[in-house]
Design brief:
- The chain is mostly helical.
- Helices cover 74% and strands 4% of the residues.
- It contains 10 helices and 2 strands.
- The chain has a two-stranded antiparallel ribbon.
- A hairpin with a 2-residue loop joins strand 1 and strand 2.
- It is globular, with a radius of gyration of 17 Å.
């Protein structure tokens, strides 16, 4: 099953990159965000297909290298900005690698890595999309400039994802005492703040790992 999972993983990633060419006609940033969002679904494949941590890390590890070469040489142009602004694509693969090591290897609970991955993929991805589509005021924290529409999108998606996870894994505590909505909102607010201050693609590291750290802390 592990070998099949590896094959499915590379096929899925390849299909996402090819499909992104369709969105490239609507703008390079749209195609990049399509890849950013859709690649997060890889974790679902990983959860069902990999039982061995070494197989789970092969894909992310290989794309740390592939994405860095693409960043330098512009090989996979559909996922690179015309004007480079940090190695966000490398951080993306690196965060998946670290998540796989921690959840498949150390904790032996791959489900723990699902929400951090989806928060990075869907929360951060759609935050950028709606931040451009919806006109709203901008604000600046440190060297990064964000929009209120984008940050609100990040907060809402993160709250829903984290809340769903807490309901599923902590129903005895959070559902019966109605604490899970408050806890998920507070966690989402924290991770939205982390995303807002993370510049040059580093949010692809800080958002998923920050989310995982909070999930570990609450048990």
């Amino acid at each position: 099953m592990d070998w099949l999972g590896l094959l499915v993983s590379y096929l899925y990633i390849g299909l996402v990159i090819v499909a992104a060419k369709i969105f490239e006609k609507k703008g390079k940033e749209i195609s990049r965000k399509f890849i950013h969002i859709m690649l997060g679904n890889w974790w679902i494949i990983a959860m069902f297909c990999f039982s061995n941590v070494w197989f789970a890390i092969i894909g992310p590890a290989s794309f740390v290298i592939i994405n860095y070469i693409s960043y330098k040489k512009g090989i996979i142009k559909v996922m690179e900005r015309d004007e480079q602004d940090g190695i966000g694509t490398v951080y993306y693969a690196l965060s998946l690698l670290i998540l796989a090591i921690i959840t498949f290897g150390i904790y032996k609970n791959p489900v723990m890595g699902l929400i951090p991955t989806l928060v990075m993929a869907y929360g951060d991805g759609f935050a950028a999309v709606f931040g451009k589509l919806i006109k709203s005021k901008k604000y600046k924290l440190g060297d990064t400039k964000k929009s209120f529409a984008g940050s609100l999108t990040m907060f809402i998606i993160s709250t829903v994802l984290i809340g769903g996870y807490l309901m599923f894994t902590h129903s005895d505590i959070f559902w019966q005492t109605a604490h899970w909505p408050l806890v998920s909102a507070l966690m989402a607010f924290a991770i939205t703040a982390v995303e807002a201050i993370s510049g040059k693609g580093t949010d692809n590291i800080t958002v998923p790992l920050g989310t995982l750290a909070m999930l570990i802390l609450i048990g």
